[in-house]
């Protein structure tokens, strides 16, 4: 049963009720509300493309920044996993009456039982929403929705507009496994829980020691899931099948059409061995892969940061924790000055005693939740959901040129 007390509380507010997030979780929340006598006025969404579709589940979709033009006040049910971004936006718009949708989904069945182990995305999204909302509502804990773990700079493709900047690496290499494991040990000692450890590069399978890193994480109690990211060009060695069958692991495959030349074989292998997986067909990318200083100043960079859809994509790279993959990779490339405030160096954190762990936790929490911008933001074109789009996976013959700063 859903949270009856909260549903009755919403009924008693006598305000329009709006669902933030016109997606699969939003649809489930809509059904719960209908079944409990709550009328939903509309959906709102921060994606221009979603809002332009006008309707979702036969209800109007309002572009979130325009919500105040239509409603002086409202109750907002948040169905988006990235709840902090939504709460911050609602506060800017003047809406303070919001509820975490995850509270209404606690009894939703999120068990995965597909015979071929392909993920039921609705259940996956609901579980993500529940855990992320729980983490946000308990600020005494250091909970991360996800962290990208860079294990290699190598990729089997060379995409001109890769947002992880693989197109700039002249001599891509794998990350040092021992140093990476040490950084994971420190990180996991500090945090309370991570929903998704996202293993990537480049293409995660390009690093032949990927199984050592993933093996460490599947045995980590603080890791809920481990997701391997690949582009459908590599089929992993069959000796690693037992590891991939671990209940914590799923394989996320991006389908780039003819470029994903081993996609069919990879899917067959995963299905045959009942390895959890899903395939993403991408039609466009945001145009956010340039490295150019803009000299915007603090005010301009705050605006860029505020609108960025990647600012909460925490990334672990060479023992340093970054807010986003752009910051991590520009640092790896020596494409930006070394601004110590742009990252947290885990190897400099004195871990051991409870007091030192608490201090490190507070430092990371401040970095992840209270930064208004990064210095590296000045080199980025910005990554708003409403940004310009480009055709994905356009290939180039040689690495792109960029200015290098003094080596880190």
Question: What can you tell me about this protein's structure?
Answer:
By secondary structure, this protein is an alpha/beta fold. The chain has helices spanning 4-13, 24-35, 48-52, 67-70, 83-93, 121-137, 177-190, 210-218, 241-244, 263-272, 297-307, 325-332, 354-370; strands at 17-20, 40-45, 55-56, 59-63, 75-78, 98-100, 143-150, 193-200, 223-230, 249-255, 277-281, 285-286, 315-317, 320-322, 343-345, 389-390. An eight-stranded mixed sheet has the order 11-10-9-8-7-13-14-15, sandwiched between helices. The model has no long low-confidence stretch (mean pLDDT 94).
Low-confidence stretches: none
- Net shape: globular
**Biggest β-sheet strands, sense, barrel:** 8 strands, mixed
Give helix and strand order, one letter per element, not per position. HEHEHEEHEHEHEHEHEHEHEEHEEHEHE
Structural class: alpha/beta
| Amount of helix | 25-40%
Average pLDDT, rounded to a whole number, is 94
**Percent strand:** 15-25%
- Quote the distance from N terminus to C terminus: 54 Å
Oligomer: single chain
Short note summarizing the structure:
Helix content is 32%, strand content 18%. Helix 7 (177-190) packs parallel to helix 8.
Per-chain topology:
Elements: H1 4-13, E1 17-20, H2 24-35, E2 40-45, H3 48-52, E3 55-56, E4 59-63, H4 67-70, E5 75-78, H5 83-93, E6 98-100, H6 121-137, E7 143-150, H7 177-190, E8 193-200, H8 210-218, E9 223-230, H9 241-244, E10 249-255, H10 263-272, E11 277-281, E12 285-286, H11 297-307, E13 315-317, E14 320-322, H12 325-332, E15 343-345, H13 354-370, E16 389-390
Parallel strand pairs: 1-2, 1-5, 2-4, 5-6, 7-8, 7-13, 8-9, 9-10, 10-11
Antiparallel strand pairs: 3-4, 12-16, 13-14, 14-15
């Amino acid at each position: 049963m859903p949270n009856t007390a909260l549903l009755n509380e919403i009924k008693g507010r006598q305000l329009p009720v709006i669902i933030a997030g016109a997606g699969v979780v939003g649809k489930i929340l809509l059904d719960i509300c209908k079944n409990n006598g709550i009328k939903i006025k509309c959906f709102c969404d921060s994606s221009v493309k979603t809002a332009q579709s006008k309707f979702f589940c036969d209800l109007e979709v309002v572009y979130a920044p325009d919500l105040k033009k239509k409603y002086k006040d409202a109750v907002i049910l948040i169905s988006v996993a990235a709840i902090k971004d939504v709460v911050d936006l609602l506060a800017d718009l003047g809406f303070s009456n919001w509820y975490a949708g995850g509270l209404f989904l606690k009894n939703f069945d999120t068990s995965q039982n597909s015979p071929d182990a392909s993920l039921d995305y609705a259940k996956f999204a609901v579980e993500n929403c529940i855990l992320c909302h729980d983490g946000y509502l308990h600020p005494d804990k250091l909970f991360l929705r996800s962290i990208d773990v860079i294990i290699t700079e190598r990729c089997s493709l060379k995409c001109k507009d890769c947002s992880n900047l693989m197109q700039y690496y002249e001599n891509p290499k794998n990350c040092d496994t021992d140093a990476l494991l040490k950084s994971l040990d420190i990180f996991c000692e500090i945090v309370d829980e991570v929903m998704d450890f996202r293993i990537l590069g480049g293409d995660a399978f390009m690093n032949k020691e990927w199984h050592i890193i993933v093996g460490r994480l599947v045995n980590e109690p603080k890791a809920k899931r481990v997701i391997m990211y690949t582009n459908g060009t590599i089929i992993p060695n069959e000796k690693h099948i037992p590891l991939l069958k671990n209940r914590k692991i799923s394989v996320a495959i991006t389908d780039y059409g003819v470029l994903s030349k081993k996609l069919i074989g990879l899917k067959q292998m995963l299905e045959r061995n009942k390895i959890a997986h899903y395939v993403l067909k991408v039609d466009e990318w945001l145009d956010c892969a340039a490295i150019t200083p803009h000299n915007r100043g603090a005010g301009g960079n705050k605006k860029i940061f505020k609108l960025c859809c990647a600012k909460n994509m925490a990334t672990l790279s060479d023992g340093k924790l970054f807010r986003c993959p752009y910051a991590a990779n520009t640092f790896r490339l020596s494409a930006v000055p070394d601004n110590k405030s742009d990252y947290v160096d885990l190897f400099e954190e004195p871990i051991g005693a409870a007091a030192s762990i608490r201090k490190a936790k507070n430092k990371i929490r401040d970095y992840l939740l209270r930064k208004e911008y990064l210095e590296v933001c000045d080199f980025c074109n910005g990554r708003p959901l409403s940004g310009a789009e480009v055709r994905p996976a356009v290939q180039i013959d040689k690495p792109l040129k960029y200015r290098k700063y003094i080596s880190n």
